[in-house]
Design goal:
It is built from 28 helices and 33 strands. The chain is an alpha/beta fold and about 1000 residues long. Among the domains are: about 150 residues, Response regulator (Rossmann fold, 3-Layer(aba) Sandwich); about 170 residues, Rossmann fold (3-Layer(aba) Sandwich); about 120 residues, D-Maltodextrin-Binding Protein, domain 2 (3-Layer(aba) Sandwich); about 90 residues, Helix Hairpins. The strands form eight sheets. Strands 7-6-8-9-10-14-15-16 form an eight-stranded mixed β-sheet. Strands 17, 23, 26, 27, 28, 29, 30 and 31 form an eight-stranded mixed β-sheet that branches. α10 packs across α11, α15 packs across α16 and α19 packs across α20. It starts with a helix and ends in a 20-residue tail after the last strand.
Length: about 1000
Amino acid sequence: MMLRSAIILTTLIVFNKVRSFSNNSDDAEKYNVGGVLSDFESEKHFRLTISHLNFDQNYKTSRNMTYYGKTIRMDKNPIKTVFNVCDKLIDKRVYAVVVSHEQTSGDLSPAAVSYTSGFFQIPVIGISSRDAAFSDKNIHVSFLRTVPPYYHQADVWLEMLNHFGYTKVIIIHSSDTDGRAILGRFQTTSQNYYDDIDVRATVELIVEFEPKLESFMQHLDDMKTAQSRVYLLYASTEDAHVIFRDAGNYNMTESGHAWFVTEQALSANNTPDGVLGLQLEHANSDNRHIRDSVYVLASAIKEMMTNETITEPPKNCDDSGVNWESGKRLFHYLKTRNITGETGQVAFDDNGDRIYAGYDVINIRAKQKKLPVGKFYYDSGKATMRLKINDSQLIWPGKQKKKPKGIMIPTHLKVLTIEEKPFVYVRHLTDDEVQCMEDEVSCPLFNTSNGIENDFCCRGYCIDLLKALSQRINFTYNLALSPDGQFGHYILKNSSSSSLPPSPPRKEWTGLIGELVNERADMIVAPLTINPERAEYIEFSKPFKYQGITILEKKPSRSSTLVSFLQPFSNTLWILVMVSVHVVALVLYLLDSTLSYYFRSTLTPPVRFSPFGRFKLSHADSHEEKPLNLSSAVWFAWGVLLNSGIGEGTPRSFSARVLGMVWAGFAMIIVASYTANLAAFLVLERPKTKLSGINDARLRNTMENLTCATVKGSSVDMYFRRQVELSNMYRTMEANNYDTAEQAIEDVKKGKLMAFIWDSSRLEYEASKDCELVTAGELFGRSGYGIGLQKGSPWTDAVTLAILEFHESGFMEALDKAWIFHGNAQQCEQFEKTPNTLGLKNMAGVFILVAAGVAIGVGLIIIEVIYKRHQVKKQKRLDIARHAAGKWRGTIEKRKTIRASLAMQRQYNVGLNSHTGTISYAVDKRRYHRLGGHRGPENAWTGETDALRPRRCLEDTAKLKHSPKIHAPLPLLNKNRQPINLLPPRYSPGYTSDVSHLVV
């Protein structure tokens, strides 16, 4: 001891000489470092560390750079400590303050130093304060520490749980700031900083108690009913004493249990044997922490001087407006330090808390002996913390060498399911029924909104599977329906605390998954799809059924329009057939017709295109057959095409009949083709699906007339969220999504929804049950249905092995046949092959065509009747006019005859009076001998020769013969029966019998 004092004294003398030399230099760089320490030994070590720092050129920017230590003693009274800091440290212009704490006063005095220095932005380095309150930078703005806070022990807890393979724990903590901080640290770290989701520890139960408790019995009752037998305890030494006492009375410190405690609880005098606790390395070595804090400060000042200029700190506490900007920058440099010190690797997080702190793993033995069995240390090679425990040295509660399982396996489970045909059928119990049927299981629905329990019965694929599992692995169960009727989806919620750093949003689950995550259920037996989002929070067994995602749509209805009978031929073919009929008819007419002109001689026969136009040769006693006119040709062409009998109007020439045979062959082929195609279109045709699958362009770029949807918050919904290439489709689907699959399937049947995207097992069942529904495209997003369990559930392995055994034995295949297919697939296949019976809807167009033909025929006959009546009236008027004209012409002729006779008589009388004899008179006398000597009227027309008289007589006779309208007297016959013309001749060449121009 004397030697050590001498060394220190010598060092101080040398340091004073150096300081006096430095004071004589004008350009000396002085940096005062304050210290608020708990005892004289700490003050002395602080000064010695400063003196050693001045000789270490690695922490100085120049030889003139000098550090000076200014110390004061920590006072139990925080107010007095504040005044001492102002008067004895800030007045000396200190650049930083190193603070310890007085054992009896706790952290009140260090907090006072932090408040005072932080007000002027002077950094404070704590060497022993471990409360969580110092992590709050809103209060302790410039405080950092070389010791980790108590709640950082949660990191070591997680490493220990990972080492021993415990995944379900119960956390017991006090309701103060540090207790809540360690819980938050444990939960946040377990979710964010561990990549292996299979070993992530989950908290089954959180027990929070008030500090300074007197009894812990009421909390132990809840802990005994939990599955977990692993306890994480954060409590003060006094509270830990009460907890261990009461836990021992409940036999919860015996074999089968595991306790992990923090440093304070490890110090209780009744800590049970086998408890594992943590002990911070160098926790009570203030001198080591003083040295590390001084060197951390020197390293920060050196780097800051290299990069920027440091201004002088405040000189007193009187000026409240002083804001030392260099102090803020210096605190930033302090947080970025990472050096190797006497307490290990020294580094800080954003809150200024020490990281990379080492811990000893302590195992409590008999008589409170603390045996180190492991270390939590910094691995410099990997630059991370590692845990090393010697398992062979461990003694567990109950003095067991074997590690406890850490969980109590319950034999009675609460199982949840959900209505999803054909896996689960749900039936409501009527008022008359007391219990479910033999093949059903009671599955009440507890409504969380109104607290009413409704009685239901369940049966189906999953119910049979649950029965088989309970018998195979020996457990009992209570079955219930999902409270909100959904499988469950997550909702992001922010969890922030003023005393803790902000953490990323956490996921809160609803539906079946939420019940399991919140440990209100033990198992889910339902068509629960295995996906990454769910597997992060719950356990899954191996799939009991493999499936994928597909699309359900309604089969397109047959196009039974009024013109369905026209479907066998295209429009172009129909037009060509119509044109061909009339072209062939025209050619037949031309080949079989006569040229309508004659030579001037009436004896010339008509000229034809075909020399064999008549099959019967012309004889004197035979008549010529009529040729094929245009109307008959059209009638013949249509009659052959429609396969109707042709009674008349057939071709007569050889060339026309050859064309007729060719047309008949054409008609036979067309009619046969039409008949075959009509059967295919109207009877045997089965429509295909509208969509080709998930890659259909109409789905990827959804149009207004094509709606698709899935179920909200389902595994399919999560699948579309993950797929970036389906993001456009998902945005359209999201607005149309349904609450349940039943609603969506019903809308597909009604035609309100075009495509429903869902699990293939359910949609194949619906398609086999209703032949009007069909699944489109191939499966995508392949996955499987699994049994859901809590994280770390002891039943996971047993359920998985049982399901694998069911697959091998064929039990799962039997469930598929019994519940999913029902044999309906064969019925639909038979329905596809059976011809469809034609009805009025299919052939309505033909009947309408006949009705139209009848209507057209009636219309034409009406037109013909009207036209005939018009023609008859016109003919009557013409006949009346002709009769009137005939009478008028007869009257005119009679008058002319009378006038001519009178004229001849006058001339005759004149001739008699003159007694003049002529040749004409002699001839007239000979011709008209019956006139008794009277002269005829022929002499009234001069220039007429006797040769013309017989011809006129013949013409007049012919006219009288062919003119029935004029009733002239027949001519007299002589003895040789030759006609005798008694009428006077008409010699005027202008005479005519046509009086049609006189008709009005």
